[in-house]
C-alpha cells in the first residue's frame, strides 16, 4: 500500500458523489495482480470486498518517464 486517506470535497470534478476514502496500492507487475485475484484464498473472500463497497475503481497505470533521464520514475 502506497497511500490511504479519507476523501474530502473534490476541487475539480463533475457533479456527483465524491469518494469517502482512497487507497493506492502498487503491485510488482500486472502478472502479480492477476495471480492474486486468481488465487483460491483471495476468491473465497473477494465477495466481502464487493459487498462492503458501493463503488470501486481499479485503475491500472504506467509510470511517466522523466523528461531529463528518459527512464521510468519509481
Short recap of the structure:
The protein has two helices and two strands, in the order ββαα. By secondary structure, the chain is of the alpha+beta class.
Write up what this structure looks like.
This protein has 74 residues and is an alpha+beta fold. Helix content is 30%, strand content 11%. It is built from two helices and two strands, in the order E-E-H-H. The protein has helices at 30-38, 40-52, and strands spanning 3-6, 21-24. Strands 1-2 form a two-stranded antiparallel ribbon. It is flat, with a radius of gyration of 16 Å. The model has no long low-confidence stretch (mean pLDDT 86).
Radius of gyration: 16 Å
Going by helix content, strand content and strand pairing, the class is alpha+beta
Query: What ranges have pLDDT less than 50 throughout 5 or more consecutive residues?
Result: none
The largest sheet is: 2 strands, antiparallel
Secondary structure elements and pairings:
Blueprint: E1 3-6, E2 21-24, H1 30-38, H2 40-52
Antiparallel strand pairs: 1-2
List its salient traits:
2 strands, 2 helices, two-stranded antiparallel sheet, single chain, flat, alpha+beta, 74 residues
